[in-house]
Write a structure and sequence with these properties.
43% of the residues lie in helices and 16% in strands. By secondary structure, the protein is of the alpha/beta class.
């Protein structure tokens, strides 16, 4: 019965989506877009040329991103993060701020030219892994390993075996390696990156390569770009001790400010994960713009530094992405 209900929900979702596409021809959907009011911060990650779901289910193609930009420009008021925090919203249009997480080099290669072409501002939340001598995030190394990694991985004193879906699970407990690593500091993740070094050469760089220091400088100098922090190692800050959180935030802030030659005051919590302690530590380090996923509690609604974001859905059309952006969820 649960499978039948899920199938019915999926078909209803597809029919609604098709109806909105048809509504663009009849004018109904266009009217909805024009009448919409409010504001939203959207989250993107990687952008590639094709086969966007090959390794990461958060990527979109450059073609899809451009189509979204075209519709955003037609129906929305697009503003920078500073303008968003300052409340410089249009009263005649729905307001949207674009953000990009994880610091992929493909953002410089594919996204930046389109921002310049359509004159759209965006904020890019970048890690400090380049400072530590790495060109890939641990979770992207593991994603590539689903296709190109070994059958067994020995790390952290445990053996993990790849199942038929390509997911590594502990022989002893059945726990997923990705879930275990997320809750640990970078030392264990560092070991994993070295173990999977050979996998990178088998996957196109567009899917995993991090921004170089020169590319970060180039983006920071662009008038359409704001640079923000995304942690030092892309660790889950909510899982770390206060000392380690404070150290990470201090280091990544200093690193980015030296590259950009300007203050870096915005922080997007990796995975949208945080605690009240994380928020206070971020403020202590000088971050005045704090971006989460969904708020943990109602107190954050009153916090002038905190804002929620909506992650884009790479499985739907540009029209349906605009609809979800306005509604604030995917139905």
């Amino acid at each position: 019965m649960p499978d039948i209900r899920n199938t019915i929900r999926q078909w209803r979702w597809k029919l609604k989506g098709a109806g909105r596409e048809l509504g663009m021809l009849t004018g109904h959907t266009k009217t909805f877009f024009r009448k919409a009011r409010g504001q939203r911060i959207l989250v993107y990650h990687g952008v590639c040329q094709q086969d966007h779901l090959r390794f990461n289910t958060l990527f979109v193609t450059q073609r899809m991103f451009e189509r979204q930009l075209q519709l955003f420009k037609e129906y929305f008021h697009l503003l920078s993060l500073d303008e968003y925090y300052a409340g410089k919203f249009s009263e005649d249009r729905f307001n949207v701020c674009l953000s990009f997480d994880d610091g992929f080099a493909n953002n410089h290669k594919y996204v930046l030219p389109l921002l310049e072409k359509y004159e759209v501002p965006a904020v890019f939340f970048i890690t400090g892994v380049r400072k530590e001598g790495y060109d890939i995030l641990w979770n992207d190394a593991l994603a590539i390993a689903r296709q190109y990694g070994p059958h067994n991985i020995e790390t952290g004193g445990e053996t993990f075996i790849k199942n038929k879906e390509g997911i590594y699970q502990s022989v002893r407990t059945g726990a997923k390696l990705a879930e275990q690593l997320r809750l640990q500091d970078f030392d264990t993740k560092r070991e994993l990156i070295h173990l999977l070094e050979d996998c990178k050469a088998k996957a196109p760089a567009d899917y995993w390569l991090q921004l170089t220091t020169d590319e970060i400088r180039s983006m920071a100098a662009n008038k359409w770009v704001t640079v923000g922090a995304h942690g030092l190692y892309h660790n889950d800050l909510a899982a770390l001790s206060p000392d380690k959180v404070g150290n990470e935030l201090q280091q990544v802030k200093r690193y980015l400010e030296e590259l950009c030659d300007r203050p870096v005051k915005s922080l997007a919590f990796p995975y949208g994960s945080y605690t009240n302690s994380t928020v206070q530590l971020a403020k202590k380090e000088g971050f005045t713009q704090l971006l989460a996923g969904m708020f943990n509690n109602d107190e954050q609604l009153q916090d002038e530094a905190m804002r929620e974001r909506l992650t884009i859905n790479p499985y739907i059309s540009a029209v349906n992405q605009l609809h979800a952006t306005i509604k604030g969820h995917y139905d």
